[in-house]
Amino acid sequence: MSLSIPAGFVPLQLRTNPYIDACGPLYGRREGEALCLGLRVERRHCNPGGSCHGGMLTTLADMLLVLGSSAQTGLSRYMVTVNLSCDFIAPAPEGAWIEGRLQVLRSTRNLVFCQGSLDADGALVLRLSGIAKPSGAHEASFTLAHYLGEAEVSSREGIDAADAPQHRSSVSGGKPP
């Protein structure tokens, strides 16, 4: 079992958050305009049975919801969770690599409706549906480029890192990720 971080994943650049800082490190990778969230399950993330604790999986689902919905809609705003529903499908053992993917189903002026999944080493462990609410003004720190550290590279190359994609009111439907 490899404990390395898969190629393409980088530590997420997030605002200071005592709770998430204690849970992490969280990793991310760009998949088009979407965030793929990653976490290596460590002993401290596990329940007494040796699997990732349900509270940790729910925390990952919540972070996927708020970060992914901001990035995928192009709103680039702080998002708060209005609703999060999680179905636990299978355990994620210590050492497993978890990847989370989100699908934005609909975005209105006040709410973003999503569904997604967490997979451990390619096997589905959690299915989620949630609603996020944009809060505050547009900020470059809530862009996918910033989360992945690309904003720093862009600004060094003379590109305005604060430019974010325009808000997209609806993202593809179809099957859950």
Describe this structure in words.
The chain has 177 residues and is an alpha+beta fold. It has one domain: Hotdog Thioesterase (Thiol Ester Dehydrase, Chain A). The protein is built from four helices and seven strands, in the order βαββαββββαα. A hairpin with a 2-residue loop joins strand 2 and strand 3. Mean pLDDT is 87; it is low at 154-177.
CATH fold label: Thiol Ester Dehydrase, Chain A
Please state the CA-atom Rg, rounded to the nearest Å. 16 Å
The count of strands amounts to 7
**Biggest beta sheet summary:** 7 strands, antiparallel
Helical fraction equals: 10-25%
In N-to-C order, the SSE pattern is EHEEHEEEEHH
Label the structural class. Answer: alpha+beta
Relative strand content: 25-35%
Short structural description:
This protein is of the alpha+beta class.
Q: How is this fold's topology laid out?
A:
Blueprint: E1 10-11, H1 18-23, E2 27-31, E3 34-40, H2 54-73, E4 78-88, E5 97-107, E6 112-120, E7 123-135, H3 144-147, H4 150-156
Antiparallel strand pairs: 1-2, 2-3, 3-5, 4-7, 5-6, 6-7
